[in-house]
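Working notes for the structural subgroup meeting. M.R. asked for a predicted model of this chain before we commit to crystallization trials. I am recording the input and output together here so anyone reviewing the notebook later can reproduce the run.

Input as submitted:
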Amino acid sequence: MGEHKPATEERFLICGLGGLGQQCVIALKQFGVKVVGIELVEPKSWRIPGVDKLLDELIIGDCRQNSTFERAKIELCRAVLIVTSDELINAETAIAVRQLNKNARLVVRSTKENLNQLLEEQLSNYVGYDPIHLSAASFALAALGGDSLGFFNLNNNWLGVFQHKVRDRDIFHRRQLFEINSGSRKLLCYLPNKYDAFNCFYDWDSETVIKEDSTLIYVEQFDRLLSKQKKGAINNTPKKKQIWKEPANIFNQIKIRKKFLDYWHSGSQIRRLVIVSILVTIGLVTVGTILFYVLVGNSTSVNPLYLTISLLLGGYADFLYSVQPNSIILQFLALALAVAGTAFVGVLYALATEKLLSTKFLFSKKRSPVPEEEHIVIIGIKRVGSKAAKILQQFNQPLVAIALEDDFDDNHLPDIPLFKGDLNQSLTKVNLSTAKSVIATSEDEMLNVEMGLKALKINPKSNLVIRTFGQRLSENLAQILPKAQIISAYAVAAEAFAGAAFGENILDLFRLHNQTVLVTEYQFTEVDTLNGLMLSEIAYGYGVVPILYQKPPLQGELMPKAYKQIEPGISLTVLATIDGLKRMEAGRIGIYPKNWQVVIQSANTEEAKFEGANQIAKISNYPLDKARELINNLPQTLKVPLYKLQAQHLIRVLQKHQVMGILKRI
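Returned structure, recorded in token form:
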């Protein structure tokens, strides 16, 4: 976060204007920068209507060629976002850009973690992101429903973002908002009315008394193993079918012939072929044994049953050696059994071999049964669905998956029930009517919509999450399905790509109502414009939430104190919306003004004056000698302008030390 040119003079280059590239254009334009796009062929129609008008310049050409970069004025670009769908092209383009611009920030679409680490070492100022991985967490968190809005890990500490509906006599009812904050919890948003929605951080008064039916949103450190949402004693084991429960005369009551015919017609062609082959083979064994007994009798020491089975298994040569038949009838019988065995026993061999090969010689453990209720159904368990499933498994959520491809690997995600084949039949097997959430994450957005509507019809109370690609479809679905979570994977990932383009390290992200909140790490240097600011100024001035402060070699501090200061070498992790990132990027120019002062009225004792001066200097960054002079000549107005929440905090701290003060607006 060093000093840069004004945002209006900077150029950001996007290579690849597909779904992700177009979303990156929208995200970058929120920062007010110039955006140049490179596309191999000019699109006949854009996935996002009007996105071409947001581009300051569109260049048609191969993004791997130097001539294309010369037209894009690559030497003037602060960052290059390489987001084509071909990872080989992305790697080649990143290397080509570094040859032409040694300082440009490279943000590359890539799923290869090892390659990203190597390129980061060789190219410097490089970061690679997998958009599917970035967006998968949003789908998983949306499926969790309830009070959970987000989860992320910092320094091996799990933190969660929770939404709490205040009820009468619960732990937060009738307390003041500042009391929510602690060493492991920090308030993010207060919504006093039912239809209020999140707009920005710190949009509340810390002295407000929490009322019933209001909503609190806060971030809190927690143990992820305790996050499992239980609902009574849920039995996830399906009821066993009682087959032999009837009395002993059951066979007199069941029409065996009808049962067999139903079983025959309900089975597949392969099943019928196996049954026929087995029956014919049993018949051949029986007939052959009888005929050999009649024709050979006691003339040989070889058992007739052994002869028959040996011939069926291809032992004709052994028959000739052991029996030495002189009768043409005996020879013909042996030859007929050998040929028949080759046909029917061979079919059984082939089917058994195919079954063994289809398992890839792996002995997979049996999948768990389908939960009866309060589970999450994932339709389209491919890249996004698989990653979302792995995240949900970390929080012990019962899952069921439906694969839409017949060739889906059965050994993938072996710990959860999996169905594939006919989609409509699969939906009848997953207990959809009692599911907690349904996620439609296939690569076909119209199929996702269809499955979402079908799931909603079967279970109107379920938490529905639908994956989309187009901006227009997402907006329309949000209107007709207001309770559903409509998530565009590329739109979510694009905000992380845009934030990373400014040099920040995007650690994670989550959705807070209709906004994306980025978990962003800042590394401060000697030339950083924010050096000397306190965390309270960072928080209230830019509208971000500091949650981890680390001064090497010391261990990081979660929910850091507001009086901590920024200095070179400090690492600070914050929760920020795009607007917050934009303000921090602008440096001191983008900070909100301070409009409040504290009038210090009285101090009861000398000790109160001593401690009061210390707190004034610490919380307001006012020189300590001037603070002592001020508090010895009361009443006085502290001349340092403060943010309202900062000033309220100072007054509360002073009151603890018997120093009285009031708030004054400038």
